[in-house]
């Protein structure tokens, strides 16, 4: 007797439907064969499933079970096939014919029949809906991950016995309807950090606001304790809330990596990822034996913060160049090619020299010139070109720390940022661009037009600062954002002058 059920697996950050066929032949001995290019975790499921069925008190017979996972040319990985395989074996042993074409079934089994959670539920449910499966059976712990997907019914189960009764029941219970996400803007009273905690640094605060308004990459350079990390950590608090589309994109990636919070079906805050400088290439970009997203993809629609930028391995930093331009990372292995989205804001911080006190008014630098040059050469010119704003962050005078009032709060800054983003959203409606930082090619010429006086200002700045063509484009984008913050449709001379100031520091880093 043969039973056919439907499950799914994850390929990159997308779900792929898998057909689970279980054929049973009564025999004096008990053997299970799993075919269809299974990995080690899937091959081992035969032993887990046998024990789980018997410990659950469900029908069980001696015989030959052949489990086929189709399509046969797709490698199947992970323990999520345990539940459909077990249900197929129980149906065969009970000689129960059933039509399970409406179901997508995913779950790992413990030896006592408990259904354990699996990673990547969200993209699998989206694939099941695309394939016409109306009902999703999944682990109880993954219940909320399914709620953002409309058009399917979610049925969480906690045990194999419960799953069997649900699959064979003539009257289904109501589907799970728990809310996966409360749609609201970030509540500043609940936030762990806020811009009002930063005293002084008016120019750095202005640069962070411009970066947030246009989605620009920013590099902060200053002595230890000047507030570089504090500024970067508060950048997500002034970004506008995730749109429903962005939340779903981000949640798919976090679901695949098993990082979704229990009880919440969607990522409801912009990601902030701050990997240590010892991170490997695979950890940063993605990869591994079973290719998974890296930090750049986990920061999708959010912020990737690289503190102590020159301490990262140069090879790892250079791998960032293409993803920063294309918004995606492509990983090719012998087993295949995976593409992960990674549209993020890059915020980075560095000291001006190895000791950190070059240019500091209170402490003298002890680094010889050759050592300073070697330190700065760790960041290549092409990588510097990928930053839209380069900002020197001087040390704050102790008198300011002691007596200055609290700065402007994140909520006030976020209102201006959101207004600028709304202008960009309206301007780029019907185009692939989401913000000013994403502009390229003809779109840059169309939306960042300059008057003759403005072109003369920009050309003179590029020549005097020895900037690249890429830096020319980035000055245009920053000027467009400054104009948006002021609510003006044209880029004026004052906007260009300010945008050029954020490139002037680049020359000192190259010297």
UniProtKB/TrEMBL annotation:
Q: Which GO terms describe its molecular function?
A: ATP binding
Q: Can you say what this protein is called?
A: ATP-binding protein
PANTHER family, sorted: COMPETENCE PROTEIN COMM, MAGNESIUM-CHELATASE SUBUNIT CHLI
Ranges in coiled-coil conformation: none
Where is each AAA+ ATPase domain found? 214-397
Cite the entry's keywords alphabetically: ATP-binding, Nucleotide-binding
Q: Which InterPro entries match?
A: AAA+_ATPase, CHLI-like, Mg_chelat-rel, Mg_chelat-rel_C, Mg_chelatse_chII-like_cat_dom, P-loop_NTPase, Ribosomal_Su5_D2-typ_SF, Ribsml_uS5_D2-typ_fold_subgr
Q: Which family does it belong to?
A: Belongs to the Mg-chelatase subunits D/I family. ComM subfamily.
